[in-house]
Design goal:
five-stranded antiparallel β-sheet, single chain, 11 helices, about 30% helix, alpha+beta, four-stranded antiparallel β-sheet, 18 strands
Length: about 400
Amino acid sequence: MSSMESSLVKDNPLLLPLNKEKTIYDGFITVQERDFRMRIQLPADRQLKQAKLHCCWQLKHLLRGYEHIVKQRLQQSLDLVGFVLELKTVLEVCLKSRPECHSIPPPQYYSQLISEMEILGWDKLLSIDAEFRTLRLKAEDSSARPHTLTIKLQSKHPAEAPECSADLPVPLVLTWTAQSTLEQLHSQFLLVLESLTEFWDVLDEIDGKTWILEPEKPSRSDTMRRIAIGNNVSIKVEVDPRHPKMLPECCLLGAEHAWEILSSAQCSHQDAARATLSSFRDVTAVAPLRNKLNANMHMWNPDSSVLHNLRDVLEIEFPSPATHEKSSFSVECGICYSYRLEAAIPDQVCNDPRCGQPFHQTCLYEWLRALPSSRQSFSIVFGECPYCSKPITVKMAAQRS
């Protein structure tokens, strides 16, 4: 074996001579852990200037626009080993400049995909991207709520597991093997939806029978609801997706954005009693609610809905779309004169019952910081209400990531 042949086999062991004359080399060139089929045909004198390069369709697609560079390297290289190394360099540049070419599926990928979709049913397909890589499949839970499963297939499908995502309150965990199909994946997704049906039933009742202040447009992954109770008084509940009818984590919201976390697992009555909550417009509004929540926790009935339990425990009727206009609870910020500031609503309120003007946390913080009469202690700013000049405090707004 000549030194050139030895080096070629050593540097690229999948590229081997096919004839005794050593004028035809066939095999694969490996770049970034990807194999591309290629064949190099040399003339009788074995000079590279007249050599011909035959590529597989993936390699031809990848080298599109770089043909003149490959031809130049072929004419300038001293030997076949040098050309193969030059070709590798060109391919690395191609892959870096064209991320979409990193993993071009083979033809059997598409036939496999069409076969699986015919078994699953084309009526389940909401959309598919131009590269036939990302599919959006529709599904319904037992309460006829629509859901979407997004599947990103790998180039070696079905040997490689796809990436799956959905709008869920829990991580989506689906099993996949080399023998799995889209139909099996869709069936697993339906089982996941069924396990969360009770959770969504609980939140749908709250959404339909109360005024929700936050989030403005709840998604199926949202576990929190901020429910209006009265003028500038609300309660934030965090429902456990796995145990949706158990006592949720509750936060009563009032003046100074005062809050407390009360749950059966985390707080004792004594701890809750030490917390301080005051109302927005009436200093007696939140305190009675806090006391009722502490005193009536033991009455929580897991067999009843969360909304029914909240009514019983707090001994109130929540304002609903049937009885109140949402504008009753959507008071504009006294500084920026808007209700929503990005995702935030006015939740900082002057404690003076004769004022009770609400503000966005960020607006009030920046306003007080600009006043020379204000003072700051750690993250809390102490100053005067922009409307009535009574004492008011606000915590520094959390930085958004």
